[in-house]
Amino acid sequence: xxxxxxxxxxxxxxxxxxxxxxxxxxxxxxFSQPEIRIGIMPGIGGTQRLVRAIGKAKAMQMALTGKPIxxxxxxxxxxxxxxxxxxxxxxxxxxxxxxxAEMPPLAAEQIKEVILAGMDSPLEAALALERKANALLFAxxxxxxGMQAFIEKRPARFTGS
Length: 161
What we know:
Layout: E1 2-5, E2 8-10, H1 12-18, E3 22-26, E4 30-32, H2 46-54, H3 56-65, E5 69-70, H4 71-77, E6 82-84, H5 89-101, H6 105-118, H7 123-138, H8 141-152
Parallel strand pairs: 1-3, 2-4, 3-6
Antiparallel strand pairs: 4-5
């Protein structure tokens, strides 16, 4: 899932963007967890996804002050994957979606699964997940097609098998 953010991503909007695998933000974008200002807190993953994305110090500052951060700050902090001009946000997001759609689906699925499961696991457990996923992918038809296409210097035709 790719989020294309222009303008304000406050509260639930920021939390919704953090559900995405990739966030493309326009330079005018602003991100905030302002819930504290009305006596509540982020409630749909905002505290947990935010700290995992940008670390404790920045997450605490955003959640405890409700103060927004600019797109450039969000990019530097690791919340945003790519920063582009506002007029390019949708185009870049769609371009990345098309690029990912051309990749072998089993590999994309395993990459997402291992990253998401591994980021909350001890390193040794996460590395074990990675090794298992790699073994699965090396046994796939897509791996054989990808390697053969590379050798033959042609585009691969992945089937998801």
